Backbone:
């Protein structure tokens, strides 16, 4: 029988996960303002424009606005404040 | 994130390079994960009532054990491979005795926190100790005398397992006395599999990155479309004694007696050439125009090449770097028609130079694509050939190795 060995686990230590509640949902989208957040990767502006057009065609009662952070990969507090000030919901586009 | 029930909808990959009609088809089609209509997922995500679990999120502690349940050599090798804790090559199992021996390579205590790493900027950072770095150094086959170099790389904050779809690698350049103390090779075959320290330090950097940051798993924590051979092992000591120029670490303000690791993020493209021959300027201009412009060049020049450039009047690296910056040229159209350069557009729009001027240029206007500070040169090679390589590499961190002795 082969000899048993004790070895170390090679993994680091993950951070504690702190629960966050989701934002309240809307009962209807009619008359509401929805921000489309373009993450600024290549061609994401084209995707978001297609999404805006989808809303314009299918749900014209929804006020849809596209918004962009100052830079890619950065948390833009001013952008978040603008959405919070006059938006009812936001769709974040992430990826490329 | 603590929001396991965050409402998400997925299009197919990729978005980049797809036409408006193609992207509209994504929107009109099905969610790539759930298989339900994509817009149904979006609209329900916005309007479906929340449930109790949505209101509290999910909080929990996670940890990893110090030791693994005893098992046989074969079974443990299989376990490490199945858990993707390896680079798919056999590893040296990190027994307590081997890790203890590795720890004797530094004066720092095993429980000391070395740093944090993550696969990309929007993911969580994992933390790790000196002992955890030692475990990965053992797995790579490194020797205790290499450990200060490995700790410095771990402390750099730069992962060697970026999750980028572009398949970046991370390439450290080592300068100072430590190179000779641990018998690194900056001569014949410096970038090949011919030296124990070069090979295992680079491998250790990769293994520690993937394991200490919480993984590098294709489709999850690794999205590199093609992968990168540089990621197996890529570390290079500069041939300071045979170079006619100031070594890299002194260019960055360190003393000759300092041992330093300079960490480059790249490995994306590699050009090569001889020389400098009679047509070296044309060759270099062609190579500089053929880069992926988001990732600046790190030149690795054999001492023969370096001395050749000195003979041409480039008696400092800086003079040759200035020439390269003056001659790294593209039309504005070509420069901006690049996925990654698009990421710089917001800075350009905001007036940040030099990007603002590059954006103002007419599409057919020739523009300089690098500042001298973007470009680096190191000297390495065995002088069997006047060879140079131009490797994609942006300098992201310069760390003291002496601090980890």
Residues:
């Amino acid at each position: 029988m082969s000899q048993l060995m004790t070895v170390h686990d090679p993994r680091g230590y993950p951070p504690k996960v702190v629960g966050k509640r989701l934002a309240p949902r809307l009962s209807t989208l009619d008359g509401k303002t929805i921000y489309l957040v373009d993450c600024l990767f290549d061609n994401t502006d084209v995707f978001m424009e297609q999404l805006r057009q989808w809303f314009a065609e299918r749900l014209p009662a929804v006020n849809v606005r596209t918004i962009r952070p100052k830079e890619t990969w950065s948390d833009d507090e001013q952008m978040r404040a603008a959405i919070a000030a006059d938006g009812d919901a936001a769709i974040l586009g992430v990826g490329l | 994130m603590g929001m396991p029930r965050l409402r998400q909808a997925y299009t197919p990959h990729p978005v980049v390079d797809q036409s408006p009609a193609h992207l509209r088809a994504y929107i009109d089609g099905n969610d790539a994960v759930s298989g339900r209509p994509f817009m149904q997922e979006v609209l329900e995500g916005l309007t479906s009532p929340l449930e109790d679990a949505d209101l509290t999120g999910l909080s929990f502690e996670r940890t990893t054990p110090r030791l693994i349940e005893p098992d046989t050599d074969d079974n443990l090798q299989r376990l490490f491979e199945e858990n993707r804790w390896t680079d798919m090559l056999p590893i040296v199992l990190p027994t307590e005795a081997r890790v203890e021996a590795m720890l004797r390579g530094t004066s720092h205590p095993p429980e000391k926190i070395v740093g944090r790493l993550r696969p990309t900027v929007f993911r969580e950072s994992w933390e790790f100790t000196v002992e955890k770095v030692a475990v990965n150094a053992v797995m790579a086959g490194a020797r205790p005398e290499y450990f200060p170099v490995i700790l410095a790389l771990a402390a750099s904050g730069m992962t060697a397992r970026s999750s980028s779809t572009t398949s970046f690698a991370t390439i450290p350049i080592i300068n100072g006395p430590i190179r000779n103390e641990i018998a690194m090779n900056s001569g014949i075959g410096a970038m090949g599999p011919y030296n124990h320290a070069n090979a295992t330090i680079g491998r250790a950097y990769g293994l520690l990155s993937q394991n200490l940051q919480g993984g590098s798993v294709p489709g999850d924590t690794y999205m590199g479309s093609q992968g990168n051979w540089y990621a197996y092992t890529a570390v290079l000591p500069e041939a300071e004694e045979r170079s006619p120029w100031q070594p890299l670490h002194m260019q960055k303000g360190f003393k000759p007696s300092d041992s330093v690791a300079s960490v480059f993020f790249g490995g994306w493209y590699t050009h090569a050439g001889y020389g400098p021959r009679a047509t070296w300027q044309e060759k270099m201009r062609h190579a500089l125009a053929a880069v992926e412009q988001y990732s600046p060049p790190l030149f690795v020049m054999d001492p023969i090449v370096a001395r050749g450039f000195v003979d041409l009047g480039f008696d400092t690296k800086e003079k040759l770097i200035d020439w390269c910056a003056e001659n790294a040229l593209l039309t504005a159209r070509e420069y901006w028609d690049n996925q990654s350069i698009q990421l710089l557009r917001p800075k350009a729009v905001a007036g940040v130079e030099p990007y603002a001027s590059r954006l103002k240029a007419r599409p057919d206007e020739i523009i300089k694509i690098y500042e001298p500070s973007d470009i680096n040169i190191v000297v390495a090679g065995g002088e069997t050939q006047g060879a140079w390589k131009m490797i994609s590499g942006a300098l992201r961190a310069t760390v003291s190795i002496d601090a980890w002795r």
User: Anything to note?
Assistant: Residues 30-70+89-96 of chain A form a domain with the D-Maltodextrin-Binding Protein; domain 2 fold (CATH 3.40.190.10). Chain A has a mean pLDDT of 92. Chain A touches chain B through 51 residues (CB under 8 Å).
